[in-house]
# Entry
Amino acid sequence: MKIWRIGALMAASAGAAITAGVAYADQSYSADKKFREMADAAQSRLSSGDMAGAAGYIAALAPDTPFEKYLASSLAFELAVKKNDIVTQRSAIATVLESGGVPQNELGRLNFIAGYLSYQTGAIDNAIVYLTRAREQKLADPKASLMLAECYVRRRKLDMASQILGETINAQRQAGQPVPAAWYDRAASIAQQRKDWTAVSYYGAAKLEALKPMSAAEWRTGLVSFLSGARLDKEAELDLYRLQAATGALASERDYQGYATLAAGQGYPAEARTIIETGQSSGKLSSRDTVTSALMRSLRSKAVVHLASIKGLPGKASSMSSAAKAAQNGDNLLANSQFAEAVPYYRTALDKGGVDKDRVFTRLGIALARSGDMTGAEQALAQAKGGWGQVAAYWLAWVNAHGSTSAQASVSGGTAEAPPSS
# Structure
């Protein structure tokens, strides 16, 4: 409830004085003269802090018309608020809504307060009813939607919670308002419970993209958290390690060793060697560490051979007869940080067809981004789907955070709408 607890409590408190400033002369409402006098006396005692006197006048009210019922129950609600009696508040606000005298423009706010009080007293099903009505009344305050999503989480209806939270995030962005990081975190958490890793990557990437300025620590947390749960292809996992390096988010011995070991295992010994050397120079890896030392010894000769094998690749993409070989050459150049040289190989692979397009589009996007073509990178990364699309989402966040010409402002993240639920 951290997302909305304080704001909702303030809304409930603000709703206490429902009757304040009512213009009895307004002909759209009607109340008997004696009733008005009794109601005024009750309001006066509430204002002065005379709870016992107010309670007596409120109990003596005999409402007949819808407006009188509205006033009487509103006063009972205000008394309950002043006495900090949340159970009576919930009962009173329900009576207010059932009175038939609530002004149309107040229905959204009062249903929100009723939903909040129902949630606080454990009446989750009632809360769902009231909060749904608040949304139907087009209540502008997003806290009603956030609380409704939480109600569905409590009822283990995660699909509904995910849908509502996604709609709320999209509405916030479309209104040009910043999306609090906590909203993205909650959406990602619900998506993780649903094992919807596309949504996890979407919300995780959107949060990271919105960070101004970029935070290496936040990027590390987001990427490591995603990697720990998502079951990715090893090559896809490697690209997230590469992103961690690009954001300066390699921060521990485990990070460097994990990256180097994976790169070596995937056939990129020169990249693995470079990562170890970088880790050692930054003080994150010790040359005396047995794991690091053993890995480095195994890489020295392999790295030399690997570099020699790709030395003549730049500029020969057009001569490739095989799409698979073109993609492989692009991968080897990418691993060696020859990003601009890798681009034509990936384009050739896509032109010839017969390759994993999602993987190649992702790698093309990475190569373009790392060589400075952010607009081209954005276009390529947007083509990737499935598991590779999850990787592309994080790289796209990095691209947009670096100022792609069509990137949205920091109030948004990734694409214009939340991903479809799986």
Summary: The two ends are 26 Å apart (CA to CA). Residues 80 and 343 are 68 Å apart (CA to CA).
